[in-house]
């Protein structure tokens, strides 16, 4: 057996990936520093926003055609329900204050059949 060290494949891979990362970062930094890159990103952002707005408009028309509510309509309904719920809470608090009753009315216990393995006789 020889005492010569065998090369570590994991260390070689780490070195290779480190060099690749360094080279890639340098190249991307140079690319992003150019005016052309800034203009291209601006155009892509504008196109993305226009596509999103067009999609929203078309989808809204589809929902209207299918007689379904849009997201904005559902948010409006949810807000109205939340407001009604808050009013009911205030009314309940006033009633409790005026009558002195507990806020939750106690319900009578519902009789339940016994839990056995035997079938219930009619």
TrEMBL record:
GO BP term, example: poly-hydroxybutyrate biosynthetic process
The pathway where this protein functions is: Biopolymer metabolism; poly-(R)-3-hydroxybutanoate biosynthesis
Which Pfam families does the entry link to?
PHA_synth_III_E (PF09712)
Q: Highest taxon of the source? A: Bacteria
Identify the keywords attached in UniProt to this record, alphabetized: PHB biosynthesis
Q: Which stretches does the entry tag as region Disordered?
A: 102-122
Protein name as catalogued: Poly(3-hydroxyalkanoate) polymerase subunit PhaE
Source organism of the structure: Glacieibacterium arshaanense
């Amino acid at each position: 057996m020889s005492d010569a060290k065998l090369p570590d494949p994991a260390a070689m891979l780490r070195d290779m990936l480190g060099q690749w990362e360094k080279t890639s970062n340098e190249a991307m930094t140079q690319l992003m520093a150019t005016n052309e890159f800034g203009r291209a990103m601006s155009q892509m952002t504008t196109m993305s926003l226009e596509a999103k707005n067009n999609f929203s408009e078309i989808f809204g028309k589809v929902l209207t055609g299918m007689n379904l509510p849009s997201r904005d309509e559902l948010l409006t309904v949810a807000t109205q329900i939340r407001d009604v719920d808050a009013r009911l809470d205030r009314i309940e608090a006033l009633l409790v204050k005026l009558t002195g009753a507990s806020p939750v009315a106690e319900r009578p216990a519902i009789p339940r059949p016994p839990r056995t393995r035997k079938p219930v006789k009619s």
